[in-house]
Write a structure and sequence with these properties.
mainly alpha; 3 helices; elongated
Length: 79
């Protein structure tokens, strides 16, 4: 995977906290810490979106659709 260089502005207190994690060996360097933090945040946002969409489902309708499918009223697709 290709990497791109970017410049960011960050609060000094956040930078100090990052450097403490690096000095304790939690992360090898700032770049790796930021890559991991951003990736994890994006993943978390994706899961939240999935949870919101699942929250829109109506269990009764889903159950009825599943029962209709398994009762043989819906044809299986030919592969």
């Amino acid at each position: 995977m290709k990497n791109a260089k970017i410049a960011i502005s960050i609060e000094l207190s956040v930078l100090r906290a990052m450097d403490r994690l690096i000095s304790r060996g939690v992360f090898p360097n700032r770049s790796q810490l930021i890559r991991i933090a951003v990736s994890e945040k994006l993943e978390r946002l994706g899961r939240q979106r999935l949870a919101r969409e699942c929250g829109k489902l109506r269990p009764e309708e889903e159950r009825a659709a599943a029962e209709e499918h398994y009762s043989g009223e819906v044809e299986e697709p030919a592969y």
